[in-house]
Amino acid sequence: MNEYLKAITGKDITAKDFRTWAGTVLAAMALSELESFDGAAQAKRNLRSAIEKVSARLGNTPTICRKCYIHPEVLNAYMDGNLVLEIKLQAESELRSAVENLKPEEAAVLALLRARLAKVAEQPKSADPNVLSGKREAVHNHGPRAMPKIESKGGDACKAFR
After folding, report:
1. Residue 28 contacts residue 34 (beta carbons within 8 Å)
2. d(CA 153, CA 120)
3. The domain spanning residue 104 has which CATH number?
4. Could you list the residue range(s) of the whole structural domain that residue 47 is in?
5. Cα–Cα distance between 66 and 77 in angstroms, integer?
6. Where are the alpha helices (DSSP H) in the chain?
């Protein structure tokens, strides 16, 4: 399968890349369907619930699913309280551009990831001490509070989107 994918695309694409894409889109959809959260504990419960749904669909454990098949920026956008807004805005923009081969939810997730990766690329590496500590300010319904940045331990999910 992987040889076939490489032959028809001319790129180093594997079946895992498609599985990672599917897991990322499913996670974004599951998280966007959840109610907003009031605090970190509720946010973590919501993340766990969404990841469990995705892992059941992919046939993996939640830990493997989160580590290998969901791009961490989708989880970060949710923790920032911006996932639904970013998906809506980006979907509208991307649907007007040349993504006619993607489903609307795929176009939205692709746009979200592109925008968030562009933001990360623009930030100075060590100017903000919160970035170094892995924490940053997130604004939710009850004001700013430090939320942990979610990173993929294995980096597998990120690889597929570079």
Report:
1. no
2. 18
3. 1.10.132.120
4. 2-159
5. 15
6. 2-9, 15-32, 40-58, 62-64, 72-80, 83-95, 104-122, 129-133, 156-159
From CA 28, how far away is CA 74, in angstroms rounded?
Answer: 6
| Cβ proximity of 117 and 44 under 8 Å | no
For the chain, the first-to-last Cα distance in angstroms comes to: 21
Domain total in the chain: 1
Size (the chain), residues = 162
Contact 93, 86 (CB under 8 A): no
Beta bridge partners of 146: 137
- The tens-digit pLDDT sequence of the chain (162 residues) is 999 988 988 999 899 999 999 999 999 989 988 877 889 899 999 999 999 999 999 999 999 999 999 999 899 988 888 776 666 666 666 555 655 677 888 888 888 888 887 787 777 654 443 433 333 333 333 333 344 455 544 455 545 544
pTM of the model: 0.60
